[in-house]
Amino acid sequence: MRLLPPPGPARILTLGTLVKTVGRGLWLVASALFLTRSVGLSATQVGIGLTISALVGVLASTPSGYLADRVGPRGVQVGALLVAGTLTVGLIAVRSFPTFVLVGAATALADAVERGARGALIAGAIPADQRVRTRAYLRATTNVGISVGAVLGGFAIAADTRTGYVALILTTAAASLAAALVFLRLPRIAPVAAPTHGPRLIALRDRPFLAFTLVDGLMSMHFSLLTIALPLWIAGHTRAPVWMISALTLVNTGLVVLLQVRAAGAAATVPAAARAARRAGVAIALACVLFAVSGALPTAGAVGLLGVGSLAHVIGELWHSAAGWAISFGLAPTNAQGQYQGAYGMGYELGKMLAPVVVTTLALGWGVPGWLVLAALFLLLGALVPPVVRWAERTRPTSGPAEPVPALSLDRRSRGSIWQAGSRADGAGTATGGIGAPRGRATTRP
């Protein structure tokens, strides 16, 4: 597998993403400690602030994409990164819960604008047959960047001083500003004229697409299995050693980096992507069953089942991510890619909000029966994707702006927000890990 895409817009996007996510990885590992130990907020206050910020991100997703369509995605993305970097510096001034909520909500808004613009930018700068592969490169890069940043951020945690946290915040802000400069090298994408009649936010009136967004967003709750439910399950409900938590995270991250581009081939067309999503549901359901059984076995058996279950999970994760990108691009009209990518991200943000409560209540509160319920849920969600996508395809215009996703050009050489509580490389769920997110793990969907 090539480490970087060929020279051109895809490579610039990849390099800018690497710079940005290294900075966010720095913040990822230290955010909770900074807010509780340096600012003096309680864990409850941090959680409430995160929820408010997440709501802002959900509500702003589709309008942000619409803005990128109308103004031009490159300028919107660069501007959003500059604003986000400036607001990050404002963290230094946070001394109370109200200021935390204010800065957090403003930063979540900037992050939502940046995510919406990114989807429109990929649609405008990358040929249709290369978009899913480009998304795959960005997701692999996100995992590398956040992992590197998390390691570097460990020095600030070890120091545990106000000075160390301030230095980390300034470095995070500098990374956002530097990423904006990198993205300025991208070609300018001309704005798309607003429709002369009818509704402006057409994505919010596209019921089949919204149905897919909801199903895909709920399915994205599986990212919290590895980052929230499984660590607590291993530590409190199995005989496996606690080092398995780190080991499984490292294996997952490594496999995503190595295999995400190759896995994009499973989503070469919209129908193929729908089938990949169905297979993803099967793989993730199998992982849930194996995790459930691991609690009843001795150490060796538990370690083995946890390893196999994690492998099944990452296979489902790779298929699910690639499928979502292909379907969201393929169902969107060319004159509204930004708002459709924003709406797609809205579903992911909703799933991310629900995931901590759902997975902890079922997996940890209910135990084995809860894991089995989760397995049935993911199996059902995956099975729903093909019929929902067929419904959506029947409602696309037979002629006009709809742009299908043609087969990916994957030859043998190429195969192979700081305020978010968890994430997937996204991106449209893109986003990044954030305050209170599990350390050292990037689950964003760029």
Describe it for me?
InterPro entries: MFS, MFS_dom, MFS_trans_sf, MFS_Transporters. Residues 395-446 are annotated as: Disordered. This is Major Facilitator Superfamily protein. With 446 residues, this protein is mainly alpha-helical. The radius of gyration is 20 Å and the shape is globular. Helices cover 72% and strands 0% of the residues. Helix 1 (9-38) runs parallel beside helix 5. The chain has helices at 9-38, 43-71, 73-89, 97-125, 131-159, 162-183, 207-219, 223-237, 243-263, 270-294, 299-331, 337-366, 368-394. It has one domain (9-192, 200-394): Growth Hormone, Chain: A (Up-down Bundle). The protein is built from 13 helices and no strands. Mean pLDDT is 85; it is low at 399-444.
CATH topology: Growth Hormone, Chain: A
Q: For the CA atoms, what is the radius of gyration?
A: 20 Å
> Helical stretch count?
13
Give the number of DSSP strands. 0
Classify the secondary structure makeup into a structural class: mainly alpha
Q: Name the CATH architecture.
A: Up-down Bundle
Number of domains: 1
Q: What percent of residues adopt helix (DSSP H or I)?
A: over 70%
Low-confidence stretches: 399-444
Mean pLDDT metric: 85
Taking the sheet with the most strands, its summary is: none
Given this structure, which CATH class is correct? Mainly Alpha
Strand residues, percent: under 5%
Order of helices and strands: HHHHHHHHHHHHH
Domain Major facilitator superfamily (MFS) profile: 9-394
Keywords: Cell membrane, Membrane, Transmembrane, Transmembrane helix, Transport
Protein name: Major Facilitator Superfamily protein
Region (Disordered): 395-446
